[in-house]
């Protein structure tokens, strides 16, 4: 009787190992990372579409930011486009933009990052500028600090 139990347990373990090996070999690989992986609410995808034969950046919804030092990133979701050196640029002429409210930098050719210091409530215009072909005009959305 003990021999039967030991053989049964051994068979169960061998079967479980076989299933794990099979699943590891057959399971599809994870999808490649795309723009804004995960569920980061402060990551905005910038795409390019064609409307009536004209390439353009579709509207980006106004982005709400609350609290100090919020990291906001923009990632390009269309192959063939990159951020210009001034890819994300806040418009201090149109809005009273306190010095140092946004600290922005180009992270890679397809990723731009700004730290929103969150010191001043208000609605701040910025411009998205892409390089690529066909050329697209800049887009002017807003960051809203609460």
Q: So what's the CATH class of the largest domain?
A: Mainly Beta
Full CATH superfamily name of the largest domain? Cupredoxins -  blue copper proteins
Number of helices: 1
Order of H and E elements: HEEEEEEEEEE
First-residue to last-residue Cα separation: 73 Å
Number of strands: 10
Q: Give the biggest beta sheet.
A: 4 strands, mixed
Strand order in the largest sheet: 1-5-8-7
CATH architecture of the largest domain: Sandwich
| Structural class by secondary-structure content | alpha+beta
Descriptive notes:
The protein has one helix at about 1-25; strands at about 45, 50, 55, 65, 70-75, 80-90, 100-110, 110-115, 120-130, 140-145. It is α+β, with helices and mostly antiparallel strands and about 150 residues long. The chain has two domains: about 1-30; about 45-145, Immunoglobulin-like (Sandwich), CATH 2.60.40.420. Strands 1-5-8-7 form a four-stranded mixed beta sheet, with no helix packed on it. A four-stranded mixed beta sheet has the order 4-10-9-6, with no helix packed on it. A two-stranded antiparallel ribbon has the order 2-3. The mean pLDDT is about 80.
Summarize the structure.
This protein has 146 residues and is α+β, with helices and mostly antiparallel strands.
Comma- or semicolon-separated keywords:
Immunoglobulin-like, alpha+beta, 4-stranded mixed sheet, 1 helix, about 150 residues, 10 strands
Helix-strand blueprint:
Blueprint: H1 2-26, E1 43-46, E2 49-51, E3 54-56, E4 63-65, E5 70-76, E6 81-90, E7 102-108, E8 111-116, E9 122-132, E10 142-145
Parallel strand pairs: 1-5, 4-10
Antiparallel strand pairs: 2-3, 5-8, 6-9, 7-8, 9-10
